[in-house]
């Protein structure tokens, strides 16, 4: 990582109004935008204080099955209310549902000024996105996507997310120590983030004593992950660790409790949700990296409004990735990662 907060502050001071300093977040700015192999410069992102008009924003999510996307939803809703703009949210119901997402996006965007999209596929929506980009800003949120037609992006490198949990595991079990049996649950094949997690995780885990005896691909729904976990413990009753999505971790905690395996099989997640937070506090899950989904939702909404108003100066930013375990829990700003416990999905802000 290159650059400093001081230098970034000087840059943003010239492009963001003074009033915006009331709320700000430490982020990484990527140069060139949308290229995680480029240069990451640390800066402080200060959102707008007010929009010039009640813009209509459409936001499309892959799903709202877990609290990760619920937290993204909370961030967008809070920022829409703060700026007094309209927000309509649609969700595809899962990563296999690319045609449903295309249909939803087309319908939702028909009455919108800007589109925010967390895609179910890296390039499956590219023709539609490039078509819509001719008449509106298109903001990529969270999931990586082909950059054709993309105006701006709020997201982190999922290669870095995979590397973060792989590096953490390698510190627990360095290469050369007694081998430990690991089952790896990457997520759904074809999803924009899964291949990138693999790219980061695989080289990192090679520095450990892990013997990956099983790889289970599947949608990040609780029932789907539960079935895959049951397969693993039947095929490998002597498994030592489960590593996978936050939903994998949630399902593992539940399954292991029911089968009397709690404490015998270690669990790590490659992203962070409410359930993961509670499980880490209780010692049921060892660790997970957070990419601050609440903050990502706020930034994506802010980018959409900036693009509409000709104020977009930073096209690609994302929160700093932090590892959460029992040792670091007290120092993490949980409000940037998790929606309040009482929050339920909001599909329209008028």
Keywords:
Rossmann fold, 10 helices, 4-stranded parallel β-sheet, 9-stranded mixed β-sheet, 350 residues, 2 domains, alpha/beta
The largest beta-sheet arranges its strands as: 2-1-13-7-6-5-3-4-15
Form type: globular
- List segments where confidence is low: pLDDT < 50 over at least 5 consecutive residues: 1-21
Count of folded domains: 2
Q: Helix and strand succession?
A: HEEEHEHEHEEHEHEHEHEHEHEEE
> What class, by secondary structure content?
alpha/beta
CATH level-four homologous superfamily name of the largest domain: Response regulator
Cα(first) to Cα(last) distance is 40 Å
β-sheet strand percentage: 15-25%
Radius of gyration: 20 Å
Task: Give the SSE layout.
Blueprint (H helix, E strand, L loop, with lengths): L4 H9 L11 E7 L7 E7 L10 E6 L5 H17 L2 E6 L6 H12 L4 E4 L8 H7 L5 E4 L10 E3 L3 H15 L7 E8 L6 H12 L4 E8 L4 H14 L5 E4 L1 H13 L7 E4 L4 H8 L6 E3 L2 H16 L7 E4 L2 E3 L23 E2 L1
Parallel strand pairs: 3-4, 3-5, 5-6, 6-7, 7-13, 8-9, 8-10, 10-11
Antiparallel strand pairs: 1-2, 1-13, 4-15, 12-14
Helix pairs in contact: 2-10, 5-6, 7-8
């Amino acid at each position: 990582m290159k650059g400093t907060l001081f230098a970034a502050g000087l840059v943003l001071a010239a492009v963001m109004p003074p009033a915006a300093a009331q709320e700000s977040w430490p982020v990484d700015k990527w140069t060139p935008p949308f290229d995680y192999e480029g240069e990451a410069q640390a800066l402080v992102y200060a959102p707008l204080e007010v929009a010039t008009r009640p813009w209509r924003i459409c936001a499309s999510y892959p799903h709202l099955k877990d609290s990760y996307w619920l937290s993204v939803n909370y961030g967008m809703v809070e920022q829409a209310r703060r700026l007094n703009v309209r927000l309509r949210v649609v969700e595809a119901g899962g990563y296999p549902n690319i045609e449903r997402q295309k249909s939803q996006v087309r319908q939702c965007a028909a009455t919108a000024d800007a589109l925010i999209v967390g895609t179910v596929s890296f390039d499956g929506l590219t023709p539609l996105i490039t078509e819509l980009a001719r008449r509106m800003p298109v903001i990529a949120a969270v999931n990586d996507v082909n950059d054709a037609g993309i105006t701006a992006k709020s997201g982190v490198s999922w290669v870095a997310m995979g590397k973060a949990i792989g590096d953490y595991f390698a510190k627990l079990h360095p290469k050369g120590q007694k081998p430990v049996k690991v089952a790896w649950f990457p997520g759904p094949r074809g999803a924009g983030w899964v291949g990138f997690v693999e790219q980061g995780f695989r080289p990192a885990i090679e520095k450990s004593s892990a013997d990956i005896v099983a790889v289970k691909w599947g949608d990040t729904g609780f029932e789907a992950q539960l079935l895959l976990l049951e397969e693993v413990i039947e095929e490998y009753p002597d498994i030592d660790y489960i590593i996978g999505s936050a939903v994998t971790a949630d399902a593992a905690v539940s399954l292991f409790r029911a089968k009397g395996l709690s404490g015998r099989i270690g669990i790590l997640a490659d992203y962070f949700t409410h359930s993961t937070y509670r499980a880490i506090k209780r010692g049921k899950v060892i660790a997970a990296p957070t990419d601050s989904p609440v903050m990502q939702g706020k930034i994506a909404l802010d980018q959409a409004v900036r693009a509409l108003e000709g104020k977009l100066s930073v096209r690609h930013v994302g929160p700093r990735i932090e590892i959460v375990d029992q040792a670091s829990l007290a120092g993490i700003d949980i409000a940037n990662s998790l929606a309040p416990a009482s929050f339920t999905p909001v599909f329209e802000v008028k």
